[in-house]
Write a structure and sequence with these properties.
Layout: E1 17-19, H1 20-26, H2 38-46, E2 49-50, E3 56-57, E4 62-64, E5 67-71, H3 72-82, H4 86-110
Antiparallel strand pairs: 1-5, 2-3, 4-5
């Protein structure tokens, strides 16, 4: 089971913070004629979603005066993690390079050029 992280390495107050309703209005609709609901944004912050790699990802939030807020930057990080963004694609490239090296070593071993 993957671990959920509720703490953030970012300070949401230093970012463009938004109420969940404001954040929802800034997001595109996934349904024709509809709009993203503030309750959807709240669910992402409270329950999260699974990324393509199976990691449980939560939208970062901060509570101020009894209300929850997030930021556009936090939404960007959330969607990057869900889609296995820049960090994940980098590790895939590294893994691919390592696999190529292993394949090359195996060919050299078969030809007696490497032990």
């Amino acid at each position: 089971m993957t671990e959920m992280t509720r703490t953030s390495e970012y300070n949401l107050l230093e970012e463009e913070y938004l109420s969940f309703a404001q954040a929802a209005r800034r997001l595109p609709s996934v349904r024709e004629g509809g709009s993203t609901s503030q309750y959807t944004v709240a669910r992402w912050a409270l329950k999260g979603l699974r990324s393509d790699s199976g990691e449980h990802v939560l939208l970062e939030k901060i509570r101020i005066g009894g209300r929850n807020f997030t930021s556009m930057e936090a939404l960007n990080r959330f969607f990057d993690k869900l889609n296995d963004g820049p960090a994940a694609s980098k590790s895939k490239k590294q893994k691919s390079a390592e696999e190529k090296v292993d394949e090359a070593k195996e060919i050299l071993r078969r030809r007696g050029l490497l032990r």
